[in-house]
Amino acid sequence: MSTQGAFRELPIARVQLAVALAAVALAYIFHTLTRYPSGLPPGPKPTLFNGNRGLIPRERPWLKLAEIGKQYPAGLFTIWTGPRPTIVVTSAKVAADLLDKRSNIYSSRPRFVVAGELMSGGNSILFAPYGDKWRRLRKLYHAALMGKSADTYRPIQEMEAKRLVNELVTNPEKWEKHIERFSASSTVAIAYGRRVDSADVGFIRSITERMEALSTINLPGKQILDSYPFLQDLPEWMTPYKRRWRSYREESDRFWMGLVGQVEERIKLATAAPSFAKDLLERGREAVGLSDGEFGLLVGGIVGAGIETTSGSLVAFMLAMVSFPEAQRKAQAELDRVVGLERSPTWEDEENVEFI
Fold this sequence. Notes:
Layout: H1 3-9, H2 12-33, H3 61-69, E1 76-81, E2 84-89, H4 92-101, H5 103-106, H6 113-119, H7 132-145, H8 148-151, H9 154-170, H10 175-192, H11 202-217, H12 224-227, H13 241-268, H14 276-283, H15 285-288, H16 292-323, H17 325-338
Antiparallel strand pairs: 1-2
Helix pairs in contact: 9-10, 10-16, 11-16, 13-16, 16-17
């Protein structure tokens, strides 16, 4: 059948709707692309339709952004992905001034169509704009992980720290693997009340792969839907990707809630160790006001965020000790003086090791 013949076979109403939607889309694109907001930090000049998308590589974009940042000594600059601006901060001082001292202004997040809506169903605090939901989820984190509640997890951290030191002494060649295991086991223990012997076990590997995929998908300029979010509002027959992302989200919800379900079983058997999931479950679903999607991602977020940040901090510490051996010797002398040689440090020693 010819293209013209195939076109004639389409229902007239659907053709008219498609033409109308295309006209609206073109009008929207023209309107946004010809009216870039003013008053933003300077940056590379954007092209009409693509913005600065061509400047941003798909792999390790932060290196290119750091290179561009050297041209803007103020410590921040603007790049464009289509009509959407992203302000890149390259100065620690500027970051502290904006994101810490003026966090009441800059705490919110833009709309993330792919990562926040399609992949997470609007259930993740990572992509929630500042508002009632964000405050509600953050309050649950704060209640369970700050102040006296955090002290509940100190025995876990001490046990894992002792095991890490032993692994580093007995098998120093695999120091990075030991740090990965320590980070994974510590965060999983806090989230779900269980420990792991390797960062390569099935569910840990699945968690890290999910987080890596999320970080890759959410790179600036990578998703056309984030640049032109109106596309998300088109009917599903014009956006078949919605079915694929819905299937992913449903599988993801089953995975995260499956881990929570294991904690529920241990609670019934009276074998559940203290954990964030146990605390939320014992308070009751209605009391904490969480849907399954929110519940699973809230608990899983501790592991997803904690593994990489903890590992990264410890690897940086190792690098610092190798690079500044005089600081290492000073810290070791302080430990020998305060703790001695007969035991390991504990949290009770914290106030007496001022240099560390």
